[in-house]
Amino acid sequence: MNFNLTEEQIMIRDAARDFAKNELLPGVIERDEKQQFPAEQIKKMGELGFLGMMVDPKYGGSGLDTVSYVLAMEEISKIDASASVVMSVNNSLVCWGLETYGTEEQKQKYLVPLATGEIIGAFCLSEPEAGSDATSQKTTAIDKGDHYLLNGTKNWITNGGTASVYLVIAQTDVEKGHKGINALIVEKGMEGFAVGTKENKLGIRGSDTHSLMFTDVKIPKENRIGEDGFGFKFAMKTLAGGRIGIASQALGIASGAYELALKYSKERKAFGKEISKHQAIAFKLADMSTQIEAARMLCIKAAWEKDQKINYDLSGAMAKLYAADMAMAVTVEAVQIHGGYGFVKEYHVERLMRDAKITQIYEGTSEIQKIVISRSILQD
Ligand SMILES: Cc1cc2nc3c(=O)[nH]c(=O)nc-3n(C[C@H](O)[C@H](O)[C@H](O)COP(=O)(O)OP(=O)(O)OC[C@H]3O[C@@H](n4cnc5c(N)ncnc54)[C@H](O)[C@@H]3O)c2cc1C
């Protein structure tokens, strides 16, 4: 067993760290307040290869391993989780899904511009009445011979307004249940496709979350991913990898808050000494750093398993469950260590605390991760 990172992994981590400090930190508070999408910063992330990190270079990607992706996700999320969710969706859901299951034509047409960051993508599974229970899809894709006719509404779609390409899950054959679901590539601008208003959110406020409406949108048959009826499996397989990305986002939010709390605890004095010298604060820091390290190990193990082509459904779910719950607890403590200063925007920790919450909800809530984990450990 070797816990050392390779030189390349260290280089990627440091590049992401520098980018986050130099390009994402300036303006992060204002973007959060104004709910402003980090458009310029995302463009630069694309140019640096952060939006198609694991994609084969022959499709315009960086050809890196999943461990490097986790390291970069942690660094970007320490500073700006609104930027890191764009990175996570584009890498783990959209690019991975297309590269793994798309046809050569789909890869040339869609994956290449997505991996280079020329355009960004969205993954559209959730609906007003289908969240955790993703099998009850109401969006329909009716087979009309050479095309599908798409009708319905998707909810809470990250990159909803800014994406150019959308992977949309829809029911073709109700009788077949989840085996009658398809995944279709939808382009912005297709007739009958409308984007709803932007959601006004608690956290990751710079990210762009919308509902999407489809009315008789004609989707050519060549835009279906995989065989007829593969859509639900496609969504589940894709989300299994997506969880590694969101676990790393949670890890980064927590480690960002912890680093701020550690620094502050050495500067702030109370009762004649730095607050870090009060055992109550020192023990909080000890707990926080231990929990962050445990989450980091779970994230890296899941990523390593994915790279080794070992089944990572269980390790990914464990990483997401633990990292998300940990991020919520650690960010609350980071605010506490800052006292009143933690409650105002300039010190960043209140934003990180708000951002942490979403990691317990999207790409499978913490309760759903427990279902995945318990099913896996009970099946033998
Ligand atoms: C900011 C944001 C961005 C998002 N981005 C995307 C995106 O890009 N693409 C996309 O498709 N979706 C996206 N989502 C949707 C997200 O994945 C769903 O909100 C999530 O899966 C939960 O679904 P729900 O909101 O319908 O809650 P519900 O499924 O209604 O759950 C409500 C509560 O019940 C619990 N619950 C449900 N079923 C069970 C059960 N069987 N056992 C125990 N507890 C249960 C849940 O854990 C939760 O606590 C996003 C959501 C948000 C808020």
Number of strands: 9
- Arithmetic mean of pLDDT: 97
Main sheet strand line-up: 2-3-7-6
Question: Unreliable runs, pLDDT <50, ≥5 residues?
Answer: none
> Globular, elongated, flat, extended or rod-shaped: what is the shape?
globular
Query: What is the succession of H and E elements?
Result: HHHHHHEEEEEEEHEEHHHH
User: Which strand-content bin applies to the residues?
Assistant: 5-15%
Summarize the main sheet.
Answer: 4 strands, antiparallel
- Report the helical percentage: 40-55%
Specify the structural class.
alpha+beta
Radius of gyration: 21 Å
Measure the end-to-end span: 27 Å
Number of helices: 11
Ligands in the model, by name, code or SMILES, are: flavin-adenine dinucleotide
